[in-house]
Amino acid sequence: MSHVQKLIAAVIGCFIAGFMLVGTSKDKTTEEIQAEGMVRAVAGMSRMASKKCPVAIKKETGTQVYFAADTDTDKETYITMKWVGEEGKDNFKTATCTLHVSLGGISKLVIDDKVIIDKDV
Fold it and tell me: In sequence order, what DSSP letters do the residues of 7-75 get, joined into one string?
């Protein structure tokens, strides 16, 4: 067998293996598809809240926040993140930010029990 024939056989083998891999990976149940969708939705909400909430908190307090101390979500429509300020370092004690997917942004922002943003959902 020449080198060209070996190369052609290897390429054909790769195509066959690829088709077999794709053919066997399409057997997902409805529950698996729904679970994957829920994970993507929660990740999207979390990503959006992690971008918008720290900006809003910095705008109000002048302090940059990074990691939320607590997170609450129903895994479909909203996510609430809470930051706790360090005494003597930050300009706030607590900041709570709620993001609703239906609004596409922050629906409630509370800093030290003072309501900054409060939108109806």
Answer: HHHHHHHHHHHHHHHHHHTT---HHHHHHHHHHHHHHHHHHHHHHHHHHHHHHHHS----S-SEEEE-S
pLDDT at 25 over 80: no
Residue 44 CB: number of other CB atoms within 10 A?
12
C-alpha span between 49 and 100 (Å, rounded): 9
Average pLDDT over residues 22-49: 84
Tokens of 121: 């959902």
DSSP 8-state class, residue 120: -
Per-residue pLDDT tens digits for 77-120: 899 999 998 887 888 899 999 999 888 889 999 999 999 999 98
Cα separation values, 112 from 50, 72, 95, Å:
19, 18, 6
- HSE at residue 27, side-chain half, CA atoms within 13 A, is 4
CA angle 4, 5, 11 (to 5 degrees): 90
Specify whether the CB–CB gap between 63 and 91 falls below 8 A.
yes
Tell me the Cα Rg of the chain. 24
